Amino acid sequence: MRWTVSIILTIMLLPVTGLGQVQLRVMGDPLFPGSTFDLTEAGMDYTHAVTSTSGPMITISHKHGRKKNFGEFEWRLAVHKSDVYWNNELKVDIRRSGDGEPGSRFNNWIAGGTNFQTLTAMPITFFEGGAVRNNVPVEFRINNISVLIPADEYETTIYFTVYEN
Amino acid sequence: MKLRNKTIRITTAMMIACFLFFIKSYAQDDEDGCSLSFSIPEMALIDIEPPGLSHLYLTLEAGSESGQPIKAKGPINDNLWINYTSCMASGAGSRSVSVQIASGTIPDGVQLILSPSGFSGSGQGTHGSPVGEINLSQTPQTLISGIGRCFTGDGQNNGHKLNYSLRISDYESLNFDGSSNIQIAFTLTDN
What's the N-to-C CA distance of chain A in angstroms? Predict the structure, then answer.
């Protein structure tokens, strides 16, 4: 009976000691060049695609000290968007424009996400990696910008979700 | 024996529960986000192409046979096009192009007629429709109506070709040496 209780307690405490505590932090919002909408020649349309001049930085870490310090965890980052006010003709692409900085001593790797992918309301895998990763720069591109789309303010929220593998 | 079986069952159930808890915790995630926003501004641009050469010459020419009417000659440089870009908010109605003589006076006995062609070119969207022939004056008159969100394309052969002509309205008032420089203004306006 004592053995049984010990096993149960061990299993119960195992998650608390480190598994499943990967952390995600997204710093900043994307900015787009103001010149995108500086149209000066009659008869012309806007440049159809605009890429952000600065974007958010993503940091992935872990609450558990040993995992954090020794990089004993791997993760996958998913992304999707949720429209606040949007026009369906407008498409948003995302990619990471750099690797960021490794934040652990071991198991530092990052893969995927360097090519533009189109965001929808359905989560897609953005990129994945191992160990702590700081300040991964993210770039956005808006496609199909045109005078044919009603003049207005458009907003969508980009959600990132990290899963521990 | 009965008590032992019951203990085993409870233990097994607890282990399964703990295992499920373990799996759930293993897949635990964290979420964060950012906001992407931008504005598409209202836009109303209009010009005449080709730039810097948007002038033309119209003359009256006497017939070669007595008794024949005087004929309008020209115009020279008969390839002027009106280009425009229009972007409006949803439900904002439409726009129109109006035209008027901004400076100069048309010689007596003559009318200056402008008749734009329908849209052609590389643009897209809801282009306007010409209202037909207009006898130009100092009073603004609608030339093209029903313009929505659109662009015509840039340069000649995009938009609406401007067809000018002179029409003699009163022979008695014609002045042989009469000539005039006339400046014509086009305005893209909200309706």
Answer: 34
Of B34, B88, B155, nearest to A29 by CB-CB distance is: B34
pLDDT score of B165 more than 50: yes
Using the Cβ of B35 and the Cβ atoms of chain A, whether some distance falls under 8 Å is answered with: yes
How many structural domains is chain A composed of?
Answer: 1
- Distance from the A14 Cα atom to the nearest Cα atom in chain B, whole angstroms: 8
Establish if B25 touches chain A: CB-CB under 8 angstroms.
yes
Asked whether the beta carbons of residue B149 and residue A148 sit closer than 8 angstroms, the reply is yes
- Please state, in angstroms and rounded to a whole number, the distance separating the CA atoms of residues B121 and B162: 14
Number of domains in chain B: 1
| C-alpha torsion B163→B168→B169→B170, nearest 10 | 160
**Is the CB of residue B153 less than 8 Å from the CB of residue B103?**
no
- Residue A158 confidence (pLDDT) above 70: yes
Task: Give pLDDT tens digits for B60-79.
Answer: 877 777 777 777 777 766 78
Show which of residues 57-86 on chain B sit within 8 Å of chain A, judged by CB atoms.
83-86
Residue B25 included in any domain: no
Give rounded-to-5 percent helix, strand, coil for chain A: 15, 45, 40
Interface test with A, best of B10, B30, B46 (most A CBs within 10 A): B30
B14 touches chain A (CB under 8 A): yes
Look at A43 and B47 and tell me if their CB atoms are within 8 Å. yes
A59/A61 Cα distance (integer angstroms): 7
Quickly count: other Cβ atoms within 10 Å of residue B138's Cβ: 11
Contacts across the A-B interface (CB distance below 8 Å) = 180
Asked if the structure places residue B13 within a domain, the reply is no
Q: Is A9 helix (H, G, I), strand (E, B) or coil?
A: helix
Angle ∠(B18,B20,B23) on CA atoms, nearest 5? 110
Task: Work out the pLDDT band at A91, boundaries 50, 70, 90.
Answer: very high
Tell me, what CATH number does B94's domain have?
Answer: 2.60.40
